[in-house]
Amino acid sequence: MRTVRELHRDILRREAKKGRDISELQEAYQMDCLLHPERREKRDGPLDLSRKKEMDVSADVEAVLAVLAEQKRDVYALIAPAFMGQFGVPVTPGRVRAAFKEIGFQGMVEVAVFADILTLKEALEFDRHVLNETDFQLTSCCCPVWISMIRDIYGELMPHVPGAVSPMIAAGRAVKKLHPDAVTVFIGPCLAKKKEAKEPDIAGAVDHVLTFQETKDLFEVTDIHPEKLGEDEKEHSSMAGRIYARTGGVSEAVRKTVEQLHPDREIVLHAQTADGVKACRQMIEDIKNGDRKANFYEGMGCEGGCVGGPKSLLPKEIGRELVNWYGTEAVYETPLENPYVIELIEKLGFYTIEDFLEKSDILTRNFSVKN
Known about the structure:
By secondary structure, this protein is α/β, with parallel strands linked by helices. Helix content is 42%, strand content 9%. α6 (112-129) crosses α12.
């Protein structure tokens, strides 16, 4: 059976034959906060919460502050791909990571790395199941509104939905598998993620969900100013995972990965996207009525995708531009090139393609469990 690492090496060889310099693709730094947490120095002393009495913070922020103040368990910040620029233009990803560590988090994990892992899974699922012109796949596991719409209203289409968890849940489950006593805190622009984290078949992966606004409050109440901090620059995601935050990003990520898997594939990925509940409903109705113009359908509940989420701190147009820019800054274009993806998949216990597709329960939902 072919291993995931062999596939990774084959892709690098193929890219090298195209004349691409792959030396940068082979350089990998350990994801220390996940794989080697013992290397990080612990915060000295308790949190300074002297400003807390001046602020009215949400119950979720209170809960996270309480866990951090205890200093008894490692706390991980799992930040959504839409985070680029949300805390101000000077606040780079490295400064956001430094801010979380300054507060007392074990580290910051970009959920985009797990979007990478799920992109690879969806690309392999597409390659396995879309074999003729009538086959199709419904995607965007990252959007709980889209998934709930199909599950609750259009249940007959569920066989076309790969049973993948969202990148948020994948990140939470992975952290807890590697560090069972850890506390996981997801940070993003979406209110629906608070409900998703409590759904019966996936509850327990993510302990707390904060919006970007609540995270801004967290920085304020702890007197942390990310824009004044130094860079803690350890980025591990590919372009594919980073662009999940905007409409069309999932489709583009999976399409590029499928093309890299099989450049000569006869049936290529043709995507159709919809953002906003109304557009998603119309796209599903068209599919039901046989009006299918694609074989890969992506739905996003918010206009613009996650960057248009109700708790985004930026206009969706600016958020999209920043997400696209961050995507172009990635060293890796797809998860197949990303050594961190391969390393994480192996750390989670999956070595062959077959195991990754068929036995990766940590990445799979049980949609038969009712909400």
